[in-house]
Specification:
heterodimer, A: about 100 residues, mainly alpha, 5 helices, B: about 700 residues, 14-stranded antiparallel sheet, eight-stranded mixed sheet, 38 strands, extended
């Protein structure tokens, strides 16, 4: 299952793709910023987190239930610091069901 | 005279609140206290020190193998250590070499005043470590790891580092000072010498001298605004007060002295850092900490709405909770005119049930349109360090270094030289299992997955993240019903609406301000309290939200700036809300509905029409500054249900300006005007043409402290 350092790399690509100007502004301290720095809407945060999580699950040959995705969405919001969001995603990655 | 009865009362209160602390006794040991090095010729590497005092003597063999405190700032050459300084449970690493300005040697030295008692030790800290800044957060502790006492008992002990017996701090909410004043407080205990206390008190007192006053500045940096602001001190009051004969107070009777600074500007109304600069002759005890972080903001009156919003009608109120139920009973007497024109005073009692219920409210489903096969890092190409077969490399793109696993070739050297400084994209699929993870060409845990080589290309727009959000409330009830007869006054109180709602948001991209399309489907069934008139209506609404037209004003949309006064603090940046915003959302919608059952309802209930209408328009809001809000809403209706009154339009424009705060932020005032013209569904009432203008002042604490 993907670890937090691996998810950090994948999630940076997501953030850099979604919000390149803000990613450049944050530089290598990007994990210390809240997600509200990169996204102006809660839906966008959910979309970014889900997209990265689905990529991770694809690599891990695993899946999360709908309920787990809902819990993941509830656990991460715009006020979440990026590093905490990455750790949360790593926790859910560890709990994924292999397929 | 500024020293008033208020100050005398404050002084007395503090005599009660801050009792004389008991003297330190042997029972308080061991202890570790942080001090400012008061030696005028102390090198920068010895600007501060922590003095450790233990309750038992160190075994003489170990004691004699320790380094002694010396005048020179040299690194201890001996191998024996009895403990270390830790911060948040982690050893503070040693830095630099002997006589370096940044030298920090994490070694406990025998203090000069130990006098072979083997109980007093010292560790020096450099000026760059700024130990007083965020002292509480740093959680310094001395961990005795090799402390064997004179009785051969091994002692492992963690001694939290405290502040020396005399500490100075800066506050914006100190109760001994007035609102909008800064307080510099000096806390001390009974170990401090009376003469030293008196010297400090005299110094504080001397600050009232106009020449010295001019030299005091307080630089403030609000944590949600750009830059810093320097405030000049206009007046100082000192406490405890002298007695009526002008004699100094007995300072040992207190545990605190303080000075209140009035400045030429207000204390910031948001959390802030501050740097207090005293005249150059200030005693060292009063100089540190220079920068105090995260000070409390001045409580400020929020800008109030000039016209309070009315509650929406039943059926259009938001279902924002699973259950929202209210029951009331109102009993009142009222004069009622009788047929003979006389008045009869009658008591009327009405019970009301107000119910909003959402079953399985807001069931959210998110579907990402397509999971990418490859991820990309795009942006200007920066430094490139080529990986070798053994060592990893890195490539910086868009100000972010991406690590490359050993042996990974993303492009040949000539190509990279050509790309340098230009916009590129690095495509990859896999990372390895190192920390930090490095981009590689194979799966880290599934050998059967195909290898995919990462590659660098000139910039090309990568696939955007898109998706669909569904928010479904399968059933809700919005009702207000009351007892008694339904009259024209209470018809709105006797409506029961049952409904279901589905909202779909199609995200075309997931940028900082995304473009998405919002579709709302609503089906409602409405009736009176007795279900004698029943109607249904369906609503469809479409709002395209274009990124270019929608940057709403929201204090949580932020940009960053480095903290000026405390660049080493965590976080080292501050988040500044965008100070402007704009929204422009077109609306297209349709309503359809009809009354399908009517059987002798109360006279006050009007028969409702068949509804068939189409509408389009826009909602717009502009906030050129946080204080100004301009909103406009225009809707044009095409009414299929009426041949005589087919077209209608409705316009509402509002301008609200918060004129700001006054009286040291105790009061706020705002100005408002609006223009409303036209009619809105259900078009029962004549069209309106209303101009409103208003001004409101609010001040929660203007007459009270």
């Amino acid at each position: 299952m993907a670890t937090a350092p691996q998810i950090r790399t994948f999630f940076h690509s997501q953030v850099n793709s979604d919000s390149p100007a803000k990613a450049a502004e944050a530089g290598d301290k990007w994990t210390a910023f809240p997600l509200s720095f990169f996204y102006s809407a809660e839906d966008s945060v959910d979309l970014a987190v889900n997209s990265t999580m689905l990529f991770v699950l694809q690599l891990d040959h695993a899946q999360l239930s709908n309920q787990q995705f809902t819990d993941l969405g509830n656990a991460i919001n715009r006020s979440t610091i990026v590093s905490d969001a990455i750790n949360t995603m790593a926790t859910f990655s560890a709990a994924a069901q292999p397929i | 005279m500024r020293i008033t009865i208020l100050h005398l009362v404050a002084c007395l209160m503090f005599m009660l609140a801050f009792n004389v602390q008991p003297s330190m006794s042997q029972d308080d040991l061991p202890k570790a206290l942080l001090h400012v090095n008061e030696k005028p010729d102390a090198p920068p590497s010895r600007k501060y020190y922590i003095e450790i005092e233990t309750d038992t003597s160190l075994q003489s063999g170990i004691f004699h193998s320790l380094c002694q405190d010396t005048d020179d700032a040299v690194k201890c050459a001996k191998a024996t250590r009895i403990g270390i300084l830790s911060s948040k449970g982690v050893e503070v690493p040693s830095v630099g070499q002997s006589r370096d300005n940044d030298l920090f040697d994490n070694t406990l030295l025998i203090a000069r005043d130990d006098a072979n008692a083997a109980k007093r030790y010292r560790i020096y800290l450099s000026v760059g470590m700024e130990p007083f800044v965020d002292f509480e957060k740093k959680k310094y502790a001395i961990v005795l790891t090799n402390y064997v006492d004179a009785y051969d008992h091994a002692v492992v002990r963690v001694i939290p580092v405290g502040l020396s017996t005399l500490t100075r701090t800066l506050a914006s909410d100190f109760p001994g000072c007035r609102r909008n004043e800064f307080a510099m407080t000096v806390d001390y205990d009974s170990q401090t010498s009376p003469q030293h206390l008196l010297d400090l008190y005299h110094y504080l007192d001397s600050l009232q001298n106009p020449d010295k006053l001019k030299q005091i500045t307080i630089e403030v940096e609000p944590l949600s605004r750009k830059g810093t602001k320097t405030l000049t001190v206009k007046a100082v009051t000192v406490a405890p007060l002298k007695n009526s004969k002008g004699e100094d107070p007995v300072l040992r009777g207190f545990s605190k002295m303080w000075a209140c600074f009035s400045t030429d500007g207000d204390v910031p109304t948001e959390k802030f850092d501050a740097k207090l600069t005293l005249p150059k002759d200030a005693p060292l005890d009063l100089v540190e900490p220079r920068v105090v972080t995260g000070l409390t903001a001045l409580t400020a009156e929020p800008a109030a709405d000039v016209f309070p919003q009315k509650e929406k009608a039943v059926g259009v109120r938001p279902i924002d909770k699973d259950l929202n139920i209210g029951v009331s009973l109102v009993s009142s007497v009222k004069d009622q005119q009788q047929p003979d024109k006389s008045f009869l005073r009658k008591r009327n009692t009405v019970g009301t049930l107000d119910l909003r219920l959402g079953f399985f409210r807001n069931i959210k489903r998110l579907k990402v349109k397509k999971v990418p096969d490859l991820l990309a890092e795009c942006g200007p190409l920066g430094d490139y360090q080529k990986p070798t077969d053994k060592d990893p490399g890195s490539v910086t793109i868009n100000n972010h270094p991406n690590l490359l696993a050993p042996g990974i070739v993303i492009a040949d050297d000539d190509t990279i030289a050509t790309f340098k400084g230009g916009e590129v994209c690095l495509y990859y699929r896999y990372v390895d299992d190192q920390d930090p993870a490095r981009i590689t060409n194979h799966s880290y845990n599934f050998a059967g997955d195909p290898n995919i080589q990462p590659y660098l290309t000139p910039y090309k727009a990568q696939p955007v993240t898109a998706g669909r959000y569904s928010i479904f409330t399968p059933f809700y009830i919005d009702a207000k019903v009351s007892t008694g007869n339904i009259t024209s006054d209470t018809s709105s109180l006797n409506r029961v609406v049952l409904g279901a709602q589905e909202e779909l948001r199609f995200y075309q991209n997931n940028h900082e301000f995304p473009t998405y399309y919002r579709l709302l489907f609503q089906f409602n069934h409405a009736s009176d309290r007795d279900f004698k008139q029943r109607e249904f209506y369906g609503t469809f609404k479409f709002n395209p939200v274009f990124a270019a037209l929608n940057h709403p004003y929201d204090p949580t949309n932020v940009e960053s700036e480095t903290r000026h006064l405390c660049s080493t603090c965590k976080p080292p940046y501050k988040l500044l809300p965008f100070r402007y915003g704009y929204e422009f959302v077109p609306i297209i919608g349709a309503d359809i509905g009809k009354t399908y059952y009517r059987h002798r309802p109360a006279e006050a209930i009007k028969p409702s029409d068949t509804v068939r209408r189409l509408y389009f328009g826009f909602d717009g809001t502009i906030n050129p500054t946080p204080r100004i809000s301009l909103t406009a809403s225009e809707v044009f209706y095409v009414r299929g249900e009426s041949k005589t009154d087919r077209y209608h339009n409705y316009f509402l424009g509002e301008f609200a300006y918060s004129l700001g705060r006054f009286s040291s932020a105790r009061g706020a005032n705002s100005f408002f005007f609006s223009f409303e013209r036209g009619g809105q569904p259900p078009f029962d009432d004549p069209d309106v043409n209303v101009f409103k203008i208003g001004y409101r002042i609010t001040a929660t604490t203007i007459f009270s402290r």
